Amino acid sequence: MSVPLLSVRDLSVRFDLGGTLFGRRRSLTAVDRVSFDLGAGETLGVVGESGCGKSTLGRAVLRLVEPSAGSILIEGRDLAGLDAAALRALRRDMQMIFQDPLAALDPRLTVEQIVAEPLASFRPELGRPARRALVAAMLRRVGLAPEHGRRYPHEFSGGQCQRIGIARAMMLAPKLVVCDEPVSALDMSIQAQIVNLLVALQEEMGQALIFISHNLLIVRHVAHRIAVLYLGRLVELGPAEQVFRAPRHPYTRALIAAVPVADPLRERARRPLPVHGEPPSPLDPPSGCAFRTRCPFATEICAQQRPALEGPSHAVACHHWQKIEAALTPPTGSASPG
What we know:
alpha/beta, Rossmann fold, 2 domains, seven-stranded mixed beta sheet, four-stranded antiparallel beta sheet, 12 helices, 21% strand, globular
């Protein structure tokens, strides 16, 4: 069996919030014992409500945020055990595309200088003509013209700035790219163009993507598998179409039920799970299953025991997912939402 490109095991990220008035120190667990594998050329979509730990997970995988526990293996090498020099050498294989395209670009540099930064860091043997040729070729690949390299970021639209950020991230053909809400700051008319560009570049260059988003329709289009986070915990993980057509966790069902459906017959056939209240504070998460305070199927065991993520290909962390599935499956002969 081949070694996955990325293997994450029991990854946790905690932030120390300091002491209270009475001296008790508090911490916030943003990512709580998350495990998954990612193969070369595969896209993992990471979804969940705001504040569920999606972005922190992406940054921790690249060690832009230091993990508190767990392991992160790139082709079998544990990032946690690497010193600064060894980690820097691996940076050429791990890149990130940020949410705010303009804020991610240095306003003092031209586009050519921005896109050429990875070459200056990792291929210093290249002369200026060779670097300019590579930058011009990459700008063409992301839908920009080589002459755009002489201009500055503020002269471009949001969509064009994100294309510049993508060009910089892809300049060294990295093996892993974390896309942190890469289209959420863009107009709807531009989002599809950027998503299609990422898919095309992935098919051409073969990198693995972690695609973080709150937009489930976009994730369904781009991802091979989907990971659902709730209060920093991984509650469902499986093939994208299986997760959309047959979600197992009640939280996943609620997220998908919130996605609008254009067909009125399919909309009427859906049987969404009612979810009550607001998410609890991550400073004081519920015992056992973190979702139990909002789940109408919660029982005593949900308060006493944290459910393990179980399942060979479509895994779920829920004590009662089979009972929920049986209760919410439409009777035989009724219209199907799929």
